Amino acid sequence: MNSTTNELAIAASGLRKAYGDKTVLDGIDLHVPAGTVFSLLGPNGAGKTTAVQILSTLITADAGELWVGGHNLASHPQSVRAAIGVTGQFSAVDNLITGEENMLLMADLHHLSRREGRRVAAELLERFDLVEAAKKPASTYSGGMRRRLDIAMTLVGSPRIIFLDEPTTGLDPRSRHNMWNIIRGLVAGGVTVFLTTQYLEEADELADRIAVLNGGKLVAQGTANELKRLVPGGHVRLRFTDPVAYRSAAVALREATRDEESLSLQIPSGGSQRELRAILDWLDSADVEADELTVHTPDLDDVFFALTSHPTAAAPAALKENVR
Amino acid sequence: MSSLPLAVRDCSTMLRRNLLHARRYPSLTLNLLLTPIMLLLLFVYIFGDTMSMGIGSGGPDRAKYIAYIVPGLLLMTIGSTVVGTAISVSNDMTEGIIARFRTMAIHRGSVIVGHVIGSVLQSILSVVLVGAVGVAIGFRSTDATALEWFAALGLLVLFSLSLTWIAVGMGLISPNAEAASNNAMPLILLPLLSSAFVPLHSMPGWFQPIAQYQPFTPAIETLRGLLLGTEIGNNAWLAIAWSLGLTVLGYFWSKAKFNQDPQR
């Protein structure tokens, strides 16, 4: 175990948590190599926040072998705490005091000297564009400012592992892109990031590895590209308005998947220029004239819907079919 | 894990945080101060003539009643101030910052200790303010040596420490400020059932033991004895026993509650 836990920033096996008879996490395994971004993806109520709360020592697990930063969570929570930083879904800032006071509070709790604390606070306030607001109470901050202050506070102790629980939920597009840049900056500094999100685009943009959590179980795990391969590949969709044209095309294009109801045909295709030209040539030679032609490439949305729209029990079956 | 100096440092950081809150938002503390001050003025200037006949002064004598009522109201001030503690602890626990503290490598109890010390300091400050009003309307300590003044201060600190720990526990089990305020209500009501306003012997016989042995009466009688030279008897020991008992109870209760997994 130890040889692997040293290179892994986070290692969890058989993680379980239930509230009463409601199982929130049903035995999940996670492995996050140091210096990478890992994204836990899932719909609301999938158990993402619970996973973060457990791995960040806020609440205790019912079962599971859990290691964070090379420390066992159950036996050495305080060592884990010294290695991590957490930015929760709900802003973990003290609203009654100013942004600067929040930063100095963190500096004190990390046992920095007064001088060092002031330096670090000033530097982070500058970096997160909070200098102007520094003397105002945090309760007056906008959502984006509060989230920036939240991350700035997390960074005071220079943690090597950072948990970000839905860091962009509720932010406007500009603030979201700002947050992405902040996260990329952290990763460039060698920090391990454990990110939860319900936005696939975000996981695609930021994460080295993605795990999809649904109903307390991991239904898929891999890189964004690996996950995209799990769902039916890209295709070209031909739509007809005339049933007669549709039927003659269907006869000519035997390989195409038919959809009688919408009078459309789907031809498997990766969507590259070369493949498209081949299809167009083929359509010409078969004398097929579709009313509408669309190119569909698989994205994480397809993966997400394919994996999370089924009840959990049906998910493995869907997955197998997709992998085929 | 964390050594003693670090624990002390974390606690003092948290204390500073709480004092900053109190300084920035003094309205709660000041509102709670109004109750004992209003009661003091009400009982002295409106009910004073009648009340003073009940303490055996022979005729209407407000000055005597001022002397009687002030020690009781000083202790009531503590009960009233710690209601604010219950409210602010309960408010604090709903804030995300507490979740952050729980995931940091700091002394675990420092959040609570900061609240407790802050609350004791606020209680003493409140007692001084109410005491100043008392002095302004004519209260004078008749017979207190320096040692007795010192003992009186010690009693006030110990008593506020004990009520604070209980209030912190009440704050921790309350889901919101309203619940906290309701749960802590007995701390304001108990002084009304003590010897703060009228002497025990004037109460119905069946009620006297209840009034006599509840936490406030022994403390009030001890303070009265220290400042005015009345008979203290075994009240000093009772007051100390109650204070220590409530402190220990509140400490373990609060600790257990704070160490539980926070509710989702």
TrEMBL record, chain A:
GO terms for molecular function: ATP binding. It is found in: Cell membrane. It holds the Pfam family ABC_tran. Residues 10-240 form the ABC transporter domain. Signal peptide: none annotated. The keyword Oxidoreductase does not apply. Keywords: Antibiotic resistance, ATP-binding, Nucleotide-binding, Transport. Its main location: membrane. InterPro entries: AAA+_ATPase, ABC_transporter-like_ATP-bd, ABC_transporter-like_CS, ABC_transporter_ATP-binding, P-loop_NTPase. It comes from the Bacteria. PANTHER family: ABC TRANSPORTER ATP-BINDING PROTEIN, DOXORUBICIN RESISTANCE ATP-BINDING PROTEIN DRRA. This is Daunorubicin resistance protein DrrA family ABC transporter ATP-binding protein. It comes from Streptomyces violascens.
UniProtKB/TrEMBL annotation, chain B:
The chain crosses the membrane at residues 25-46, 66-90, 111-137, 149-173, 185-207, 236-254. It is found in: Cell membrane; Membrane. It comes from Streptomyces violascens. Belongs to the ABC-2 integral membrane protein family. This is Transport permease protein. Residues 27-261 form the ABC transmembrane type-2 domain. It is a multi-pass membrane protein. It comes from the Bacteria. The lineage of its organism: Bacteria, Bacillati, Actinomycetota, Actinomycetes, Kitasatosporales. Keywords: Antibiotic resistance, Cell membrane, Membrane, Transmembrane, Transmembrane helix, Transport. Pfam families: ABC2_membrane (PF01061). Its main location: membrane.
